[in-house]
């Protein structure tokens, strides 16, 4: 099963819907959307990991979506998860150019936030 890692801060921040007023709530809405709709149609099924950081911490995992809290940089945790994908395909959802470069160096692939369904 392909590993899908979602850069929570980047994906939430890609839509100006007031997320900055309640970062944790925005991350929970993203988690619920992922649980309901899954990942991009290309390449599934997925094991979905949502990475959260900062004021979005405290979001619980739900069936179908494991939430990982970054102790520091969310980007660093995403790269670590991609590096440790145990030889299986890894797809990261982010629009962050530097993070994309780092993920590709681990052998992973990247797509933008608009690739997610239900958005």
Commentary on this structure:
The protein contains four helices and five strands; from the N terminus they run E-H-H-E-E-H-E-H-E. With 119 residues, the protein is an alpha/beta fold. It has a five-stranded parallel beta sheet, sandwiched between helices. The longest helix is centred in the first third of the chain and has 15 residues, at 23-37. The mean pLDDT is 92.
Strand content: 15-25%
Shape: globular
Averaging pLDDT over every residue, what do you get?
92
Instruction: Give, in order, the helices and strands.
Output: EHHEEHEHE
Spatial strand arrangement across the major sheet: 3-2-1-4-5
As a percent range, the share of helical residues equals 25-40%
Give the low-pLDDT segments: none
Radius of gyration based on Cα positions: 13 Å
| Secondary-structure class | alpha/beta
List keywords for this structure.
119 residues, globular, single chain
Brief account:
With 119 residues, the protein is α/β, with parallel strands linked by helices.
Layout of SSEs?
Layout: E1 2-7, H1 8-13, H2 23-37, E2 46-52, E3 65-69, H3 74-83, E4 90-93, H4 97-105, E5 109-111
Parallel strand pairs: 1-2, 1-4, 2-3, 4-5
């Amino acid at each position: 099963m392909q590993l899908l890692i979602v850069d929570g801060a980047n994906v939430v921040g890609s839509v100006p819907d007031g997320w900055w007023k309640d970062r944790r709530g925005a991350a929970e809405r993203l988690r619920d959307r992922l649980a309901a709709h899954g990942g991009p149609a290309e390449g599934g099924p997925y094991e979905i990991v949502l990475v959260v950081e900062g004021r979005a911490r405290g979001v619980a995992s739900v069936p179908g979506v494991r939430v990982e809290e970054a102790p520091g940089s969310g980007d660093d945790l995403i790269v670590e998860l991609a590096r440790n994908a145990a030889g299986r395909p890894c797809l990261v959802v982010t629009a962050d150019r530097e993070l994309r470069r780092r993920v590709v160096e681990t052998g992973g692939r990247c797509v933008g936030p608009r690739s997610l369904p239900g958005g």
